[in-house]
Amino acid sequence: MLKYGFDESTMSKSIFGASYHRVFAPEHLTLGIGVPIEAYSGAIPSMQNQVALAQEVERSGFAALWCRDVPLYDPSFGDVGQIYDPWVWLGYIGAQTTAIALGTASIILPLRPPVDIAKAAASIDQLTGGRLLLGVASGDRPVEYSVYQENYESRGEVFRNTFDFIRTSTHRPANWNNTDVMQQHRVDLLPKSFSGDIPMLVTGNSRQAVEWIAEHAAGWLMYPRQLEHQAQVIRQWAKALENKSQNWKPFAQSLYIDLTDNPSTPASPIHLGLRVGRNGLLSHLASLQEIGVNHVLFNVKFSTRPIVDVLAELREYVVPQFPAIAK
Length: 327
What we know:
Elements: H1 18-23, E1 30-34, H2 50-59, E2 64-67, H3 86-94, E3 101-108, H4 114-127, E4 132-137, H5 142-148, H6 155-170, H7 179-184, E5 200-203, H8 210-216, E6 219-222, H9 227-243, E7 251-259, E8 268-270, E9 273-276, H10 278-291, E10 295-299, H11 307-318
Parallel strand pairs: 1-2, 1-10, 2-3, 3-4, 4-5, 5-6, 6-7, 7-9, 7-10
Antiparallel strand pairs: 8-9
Helix pairs in contact: 3-4, 4-6, 8-9
């Protein structure tokens, strides 16, 4: 029995919607891109032309669009993501795209009431026809916890409880309908997910053991690392899944890129990513696929070329090698 009174034994087998399977499959790597889809210095992007750019990303064959949850502008942190509240943003951009998966990377669970997060997530999932990929995290900035008047030290436990509440309260059994609530004469959360479960992916460790993530999450979102180190992390992930008697679950990572106009530019490190020509990028992505990465989320903040040129090159040469999964 969970803290909020939902009994997992009553849940039917987890079923994820089409967008999850558009993005994730064993031995396959797909590509996503984070918003803002623009290069900018400092902390605050312009957020100009984001709808048109998001539509171009979808036409280009990317599997997913991702947005971050950055509630406050903390000058010591670096940037504010897409500025807007992630739920408002996903509703806005979801209404102007059609098929691309919509991901959060990631919603900070301990900062908000669980019922509010669950209702927002289920609403986006319903309104977009099951396109939500719900990346979640525990947060790492004490200043946010101070403003929200939440306990920073207990965030690991709160994360687990909130995670369980969202998963169970938004779950849509195969034969569920609105009249079930009235027939049972009890409080329930509406809407439910579009179908089955909303895929919930844990970012980093979020103060949890890898075995807990393997057992409970729909996948693992990680940060970029040196190839050998990332391969070790993926082996750890596979072992945790095995230990918890879980089937395959995806491993995804972010990657900042500055794609040069010279295809042969060798890779050199930038913050959380690479400055590289497309040949080196293709080689790096192939290596990531080889070690078991299933999805790479590009961040283009540090681009030194016009974003329309970067997207055009990715569309012609890179995305076709790592396409969204057709269903």
